């Protein structure tokens, strides 16, 4: 079983409990409608640079346009312009952000004896 399927089952169960729905199927339909609405909203505003969609204390989606840059091809020496790119980024907020694990500076240092 894929991890996202298990996560969706848990989410549907929580939605069913929160709305006191009689069946899990109804909760799954609500979850699917919410996800489809998020996706269509982001797709409709993909052309808008700087568009953000903040979801309370859960997180924020933001759309950013990155222009192409000039790159030099090492073998031929030719300079080309790369394609423009659009990035959709998610930043977690609230309790989700506070419970994230930071890797790097807080990692324990391993000493080696030589």
Question: Got a strand count?
Answer: 5
Please write the CATH class name of the largest domain. Answer: Few Secondary Structures
- Give me the CATH architecture of the largest domain, please: Irregular
Order of helices and strands: HHEEEEEH
Helix percentage: 25-40%
Beta-strand content estimate:
15-25%
Structural class: alpha+beta
Q: Can you offer a commentary on this structure?
A:
- By secondary structure, the chain is an alpha+beta fold.
- It folds into two domains: 1-44, no CATH class; 48-100, HU Protein, Chain A (Irregular), CATH 4.10.520.
- Helices cover 38% and strands 23% of the residues.
- Strands 1-2-5 form a three-stranded antiparallel β-sheet.
- It is elongated, with a radius of gyration of 22 Å.
Task: Summarize the SSE layout with pairings.
Layout: H1 3-19, H2 24-44, E1 52-55, E2 59-66, E3 70-72, E4 79-81, E5 85-92, H3 94-98
Keywords:
single chain; 114 residues; alpha+beta; HU Protein, Chain A; 2 domains; three-stranded antiparallel beta sheet
In short:
With 114 residues, the protein is α+β, with helices and mostly antiparallel strands. The chain is built from three helices and five strands, in the order H-H-E-E-E-E-E-H. The protein has helices at residues 3-19, 24-44, 94-98; strands spanning 52-55, 59-66, 70-72, 79-81, 85-92.
């Amino acid at each position: 079983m894929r991890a996202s399927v298990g996560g969706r089952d848990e989410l549907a169960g929580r939605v069913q409990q929160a709305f006191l729905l009689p069946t899990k199927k109804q909760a799954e339909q609500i979850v699917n409608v919410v996800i489809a609405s998020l996706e269509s909203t982001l797709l409709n505003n993909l052309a808008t640079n700087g568009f953000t969609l903040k979801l309370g204390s859960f997180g924020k989606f933001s759309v950013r346009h990155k222009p192409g840059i000039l790159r030099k091809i090492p073998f031929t020496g030719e300079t080309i312009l790369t394609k423009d790119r659009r990035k959709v980024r998610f930043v977690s907020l609230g309790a989700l952000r506070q419970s994230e694990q930071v890797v790097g500076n807080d990692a324990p240092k391993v000493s080696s004896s030589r």
